[in-house]
Amino acid sequence: MIEQLPAIQLLLTLLAAPICSMLRNGDQSWRLATLVSWASVAVAGALLHQVWDGNEISYHMGGWPPPWGIEVVVDELTAIVLLLVTLFGALVMTALRESLSTIMRHQRQSLYYTSFLLCMASLIGITLTGDAFNVFVFLEISSLATYTLIARGRDRRALTAAFRYLIMGTIGATFILIAIGFMYMLTGTLNMADLAERLPEHRDSRVLHASFAFFTVGIALKIALFPLHYWLPNAYTYAPKATTAFLAATATKVSLYVMIRFVFDVYGVEFSFQQMQLGTLLVPLSLAGILIASLTAIFQSDAKRLLAWSSVAQLGYMSLGIGLLNLNGLTASITHMFNHAMMKAGLFLALATMIYRVQSSQLTSLAGIGRTMPLTTGAFTVLGIGLIGVPFTAGFISKWYLITGALDKGWLPVAVLLIASSLMAIVYIGKMIDVMYFKPAPEEFSNVREAPMSMLIPCWIFALLTLYFGLDTRITAGLAGRVAANLLGAS
Amino acid sequence: MNHTLIYASFLTPLIGGALLVLLRKNENIRDAVSIITATILFGIVLCLYPTILAGNTPSVTLAEPIQGLGLTFTVEPLGLLFATVASGLWILTTIYAIGYMRGANEPNQSRFFLCFAISIAAAIGIAFAGNLLTLFVFYEMLTLATYPLVTHKGNEDARRGGKLYLGILMCTSIGLLLFAVLWTFQLTGTLDFRAGGILQGNVSPTVALILMTLFAFGTGKAALMPFHRWLPAAMVAPTPVSALLHAVAVVKAGVFTILKVVIYIFGIDLVAETGAGNIALWVATFTLVAASIIALTKDNLKARLAYSTVGQLSYVVVGAMLANAAGIVGAAMQIATHAMGKITLFFCAGAIYVATKKTEISDMRGLGYKMPFTFGAFFIGAFSIIGLPPMAGSWAKWHLMMGSIDASQWVIVAALLLSSLLNIAYLIPVAARAFYMSPEQAVNPGRTVIEEAPLFCVVPLCLTAAGCILLFIFGDALDHLIGLIPLTRAAP
Amino acid sequence: MVTGLFNYWIVVILMMAGLYIVMSSGHLVKKIIGLNIFQTSVFIFFISMGKVSGGTAPILKDGISVFSNPLPHVLILTAIVVGVATTALGLAISVRIYEAYGTVEEDEISDMDKENRQRETSVSTVVLDKQ
């Protein structure tokens, strides 16, 4: 049983998805989906426990040994991303029923949960697999599920947002496919461990260079790295309510995981950073992304769009950490991957909870909501403080490592810019909190009630986790530090 | 035991705050909760004295998320002094605030008392912070918790004041202070407050100078010019807020931070050797005089007191930057004695407002006959601020003077003297004029009846006025406590 | 050179043509067609890669010793399925867009969205002014 855990992790959600689609009753499928996602959390927890001491689990699908069979590899980095996807997915799922009940008929709901589970399953798949082509397939499944999820938004602009994302996402994924093709051409294998072994001898081959270029652009599209972030704000803004929380937490983070895996493990640190100079590309772009997106966020009048722009900026932090290429920087990236997923999912969820009551995400309709929905707004405030990076919240930990990483490199201006961007975060989060607490509520919303428990509790779990991971960093920064040391040491 | 006390000192105001929100339905019970919480907190702080006087510094670490950076509380003499001042005056202010808020019929009283409690918790956190990072967090928490208090009135003025308040304090603390903190960590690998400082041997004189300047300006709460504008802006708040927070907790948190940095991060030897404090020293000296001159021009009583506070805070900074024993003692004393004096003055200003709705000094002619207790207390408070014996302030001024003489800074000696004269010029007329006849009284002498503010307002201000005198008499106790602050590196 | 790498030249031409259509065309359905051409080029690329000159289909039979690499074919089967799914979804969304907007021209859609947005922001400024 224990040795089958990696397979169970994937199959739970993957098998539950079609069952869900057959259920006519939305509530039933919600129950199934929630149960399954929490079970996945348990499995992810068990996996994390197993690899805690630096063990690596290698599981052979169907008993076929690699390189013929498909290998599933679980190491510490995998485990932390699995926990991220399942835990935050499950929390959002728990809150989803109330959120959906107002906008969808029962049968439609079942289909919605199906897409949600499929998305989760494929994200788990991407994380688990040790096979390069599988990464592409799961990436496409997750993208397809995501497009449908986004297209279900109430506003018709959700459709155009989904369409745009579809075009960009498909191009990105196809680029990755080309990159994988080139690698296969050189080495004749698709197993990532094998690739890592064989690629170095081709390091001067132009084919490999082309492969790397295609991969970088493709994955940057998926991560929404500045300046390829164009699809993200609209997609997040118009996706239906709580869905945004799930997407913001997982989709881009898993893509980032793919990038880390390929750049560090498959292509190798030396090739990626010394020969191809990935760092010189990532650092300025990330910095520009951080500053421009933060600045744009400040001027948004729609709360969801504001948070979406903030996501673009925060993704910049993560890629910057990779670009720094030192222990602290990479630790920051991985930690922030987890922390930001948690905080942004929480923020979007809290926002969804408010929107559930006031039916609009314009800042003006959220005015004064701190008085009518104090508990939700309280959670939102805690999460916002975390996002800003106030010490002893989760956001601080990752920012601290990032700034230390920049200073380790002796890049004082980068550190200064990072602090400046934190100031901008204060402005845009402060702007929202100011509106929520200190502006008078519009008349039609003056007797809005507090949100239902099933939404409120997940929000507060997110908020409390933000505080908890600001104090206890064994799972986040501690683990990330070991992972980073491994990744860098592998060169 | 001590650990429990430290936790309790921080949690008591928070629990009290939660309780008073739960009990908000009944005003009397709610306000009773406030007073009881304040008293318990003061008791807890007093319980810490025996340990400190025995020369111990108990310390607890709540969590250590990053190697070398924990959420740590350490009780040491200076912090205990600050905590005592803040918690002790909180009791009086609570009593006063109840009278004031009811007398002035202010709305949202529960929110007011809640934020008040959180602010005190933050102030205690600052006082007992065991490292710079913990201090920084509570510093920011204090800013945020006081923001709703500043904007309490909710009108355009209050919002504008609040924006300035938040803007200046946040920008300086994050832009400069946080940067200085990070830099310090980068240089030394620790942020702990240690006797004799942690920077010794890690910095060149230039870096020390830049760092100290960053710290001094980054601590916006210390109101060094040009970052002093938030303090007058914050005067839109109800008077109890101005009294406790903008005469005691917030501003004292600022200068307390600077003192802590000088003593426990730099170490006074380092400051004295490298002249790291020079820029801050001269800016503070300038602020000292300039703020007093501006205060002279203000007719609004609270504005005048605000500028007076700006000036008086610079005394502490000057004392810290002089970096000798007498200067430090003077600075620490100034924290306590100025708190006592200034809160008296603010209580008086509030009492006048509640009783007569008057805020301009020129309107107060003749009020002294109506409100003899209030204006009597005002005299005492003013004398203490100026530094005339037998009021508490005289000790602080005396030590500061000695400190600047020790450092042979004759310009500063002159500035201190000049400032004292200016203090007399802007404070004494306020009270004196109140005892002049107003025109109608001149016509009808003897018809004036005593119409004091509510008892809840008058009693606290009489108590703090008495405190000004008591602190003078028991100055040696204060001296003893401050004498326990370790100024040099402990022998290994 | 040209004849030897004939397949790859075709791949490049198709890929560029596909990408160009995706970027330049404002018609949503045409965009999807472009996307398809783009993906197809990659499929051809993979298939060409697996070709061993002189090899036949990989069937276990006497006399066959040289055969093409079957793995790329298998991979591309999967990729084609994915591509079909993407196309289907893209078309479905286009239909929904047509229902919602009455057009599938991107320019017109973004014009309509812009108006929408202006209305939203003007509403919110009015509300702010009231306050």
Structure description:
The complex is a heterotrimer of chains A (491), B (492) and C (131). By secondary structure, chain A is mostly helical. Helix content of chain A is 77%, strand content 2%. Chain A has helices at 5-22, 26-51, 76-101, 106-128, 132-151, 157-187, 192-198, 206-223, 232-238, 241-266, 269-275, 278-298, 303-324, 327-358, 369-372, 374-388, 394-408, 412-438, 453-471, 474-489; strands spanning 57-60, 71-74. Chain A has a two-stranded antiparallel sheet with strand order 1-2. In chain B, 74% of the residues lie in helices and 3% in strands. The longest helix of chain B has 33 residues, at 156-188. Chain B is globular. Chain C is built from 4 helices and no strands. Chain C has 131 residues and is mostly helical.
Ordered list of secondary-structure elements with their pairings:
The complex is a heterotrimer of chains A (about 500), B (about 500) and C (about 130).
Chain A: H1 5-22, H2 26-51, E1 57-60, E2 71-74, H3 76-101, H4 106-128, H5 132-151, H6 157-187, H7 192-198, H8 206-223, H9 232-238, H10 241-266, H11 269-275, H12 278-298, H13 303-324, H14 327-358, H15 369-372, H16 374-388, H17 394-408, H18 412-438, H19 453-471, H20 474-489
Chain B: H1 2-22, H2 27-47, H3 49-53, E1 59-66, E2 69-74, H4 77-104, H5 109-128, H6 132-150, H7 156-188, H8 205-218, H9 230-233, H10 239-266, H11 268-274, H12 278-297, H13 301-322, H14 325-356, H15 367-370, H16 372-386, H17 393-406, H18 410-434, H19 439-443, H20 455-473, H21 475-483
Antiparallel strand pairs in B: 1-2
Chain C: H1 6-24, H2 28-50, H3 71-101, H4 106-130
Helix pairs in contact in C: 1-2, 2-3
